[in-house]
Amino acid sequence: MVYSLHHRSKCVKINARTCRGTLTPAAFFRYNNIMYSGNQEALREEERRIRTFRFLTDLTYQRLCLEDLTYTQAREIVAEFKGLSGKFFPGKEYVFDLVISPRLERVILERFLPRN
Question: For residue range 30-39, what is the model confidence (pLDDT) as tens digits?
Answer without folding.
Answer: 655 555 556 7
